[in-house]
């Protein structure tokens, strides 16, 4: 395997691990809090993974949206910025 191919493969593996780490952190936070505003969840997620890596805001938003699609979280009916943990 050439150096660029191995580098791409390694980067892909790292990105996958980071997605799982973000998902786990978000679910863990929401399981404890039950409801959080998006900004609070974003801040708590950054704080939870800061010892491992610094996530960008876009990645966090994508992971939250993915967890909403997978029915781990839902948006509150009256306040779209409020996220609710689905047990």
From TrEMBL:
InterPro entries: Cullin, Cullin_neddylation_domain, WH-like_DNA-bd_sf, WH_DNA-bd_sf
Signal sequence, renumbered to the chain: none
Keyword Acetylation included in the entry's annotation: no
UniProt xrefs under SMART domains: Cullin_Nedd8
Matches recorded under SUPFAM superfamilies: Winged helix' DNA-binding domain (SSF46785)
Keywords (A to Z) from UniProt: Isopeptide bond, Ubl conjugation
Pfam families recorded: Cullin_Nedd8
Domain Cullin neddylation: 14-81
Name of protein: Cullin neddylation domain-containing protein
Organism, as annotated: Hermanssonia centrifuga
